[in-house]
Write a structure and sequence with these properties.
The protein is an all-alpha fold and 437 residues long. Helix content is 80%, strand content 2%.
């Protein structure tokens, strides 16, 4: 297949358009606000019963996400190995998309008396999102040449931000102006939003499903060797990475700063609702600010990277993340939260886009096992999320404050920064070697 085909790249970017609505509505705005409101009662405060055990409500949702990501960490190596072996990664991409979309549809039935159903659907939606993104990411080196991957990766994130904002605005009307539609039940607008996310996700995913390179299935029987080869593939990739000093150090840095980035993305709305009592309307405004600024951030960072290099940009962005965490600890007003949201939006799009393209650009040329390499990348990221979310939830339960959890995130960023600075020396050594050779 010819690389840099505009139609294929545009279609690939539409997968971000399709699934980013999940990130915005379910993880960032309406679901966290709705969840916190219905699980906070006069009788029990912020304590809820989940299958007979008592949890702090926001800690429970973070634990659920960490378990979902942990399951995917275990499954993805097997699935990527099977996808490489059977030549049908698009099939897996579809399966995860439908699972995530249908789980969002299932959240339409989520109320306090169906807490267990809501948490399970919440976790399944996260698993669907993670799996779909991993297989979608693995197409990047197939559809774009190395020199175009920063731009293409940024385009995907930009499409994602635009698409998610459009759906968010539709949901915004139902949530904030229910009387316009004759809605009496206050729980209906958010539940309708969850339903719309599922339909949007599945519907727009049909565009990349039609245009991305077709599978080349061999229909060979899956044997024990293939099943066991999942972690063997990861081990193989890790052994290869040992001889790629740049990627080895980069992935360590990526692991630590991802603990902070991804946890903030997933827990920010809960912090705004529970600690600052911003309310659904203000939360939606905040996340819209983040999404709109993130479009600009993803584009600016990719262009900035061309001038000073990806690693230099990542170092600058991680430093800003560290400062942001310490500022967030002292945030007490909505205005301060809005200001931080604007900063987070600007650096969020950039760090996600550059992280993906930096990894992709340094993969071995013409490698046939892109799914395995991106499985390793995604396992690294998802393990970071598992540890980040679990730490955030555990510290909140033990100390009774999300503010203490935020300081822990700052420490993850600091460790990531140390490895990025180390990566600079590795990069310089490699450049000197190339000149000598």
């Amino acid at each position: 297949m010819e690389k840099n085909d505009k139609k294929v790249i545009r279609s690939w970017a539409f997968f971000d358009w399709a699934n980013s609505a999940y990130n915005l509505v379910i993880t960032s705005t309406i679901f966290p606000a709705y969840y916190t409101i219905i699980t906070t009662t006069q009788a029990h405060g912020d304590q809820v019963m989940f299958f007979g055990r008592t949890f702090t409500n926001t800690a429970l949702s973070n634990y659920a996400l960490s378990v979902a990501y942990l399951i995917m960490v275990i499954l993805l190596p097997f699935l990527s190995s099977m996808a490489d072996y059977r030549g049908n990664k698009k099939l897996f991409m579809k399966l995860f998309t439908y699972m995530g979309g249908l789980a969002c549809v299932g959240l339409y039935f989520f109320k306090l008396d169906t807490l267990e159903l809501g948490i399970i659907c919440f976790a399944l939606a996260a698993m669907g999102y993670v799996g779909g993104v991993m297989f979608n990411n693995s197409y990047l080196p197939e559809i774009a040449t190395t020199d175009q991957q920063d731009r293409v990766s940024a385009k995907g994130f930009a499409y994602g931000y635009i698409g998610s904002v459009l759906l968010q605005l539709i949901c915004f009307l139902f949530v904030l102006k229910p009387e316009w539609f004759g809605i009496i039940d206050p729980s209906f607008p958010p539940r309708l939003s969850f339903l719309l996310v599922g339909l949007w996700w599945i519907g727009f995913a049909q565009i990349p499903f039609r245009k991305l390179p077709a599978d080349n299935p061999n229909y060979k029987k899956i044997n024990k060797r293939v099943i066991h080869s999942g972690f063997e593939e990861l081990s193989k990739v890790w052994k290869q990475l040992k001889h790629m000093p740049f990627l080895k150090v980069y992935l360590i840095a990526f692991f630590f700063y991802s603990m902070g980035v991804q946890t903030i993305m997933l827990a920010a709305a809960g912090f705004g609702e529970k600690t600052l009592q911003l309310g659904t309307e203000n939360l939606i405004k905040v996340i819209l600010i983040i999404q709109l600024v993130a479009i600009l951030g993803a584009i600016i960072m990719s262009r900035f990277a061309k001038k000073i290099g990806n690693i230099n940009v990542l170092i600058i962005v991680v430093v800003i993340w560290i400062v942001t965490c310490f500022c967030a600890y002292y945030v007490t007003t909505a205005s301060q939260y809005y200001g931080l949201a604007a900063i987070v939006g600007l650096i969020m799009g950039g760090i996600q886009s550059l992280s993906r393209s930096t990894y992709s650009k340094h993969l071995p040329a013409d490698t046939p096992d892109t799914a395995s390499y991106f499985s390793f990348y995604d396992v690294t990221e998802k393990m970071a999320i598992v540890i980040g979310l679990f730490s955030f939830a555990f510290i909140e339960e033990q100390t009774g404050s999300m503010r203490n959890s935020i300081i822990a995130l700052a420490s993850f960023f600091i460790i990531g920064l140390v490895f990025l600075l180390l990566l600079k020396s590795v990069e310089q050594k490699l450049n000197r070697k190339v000149v000598v050779d």
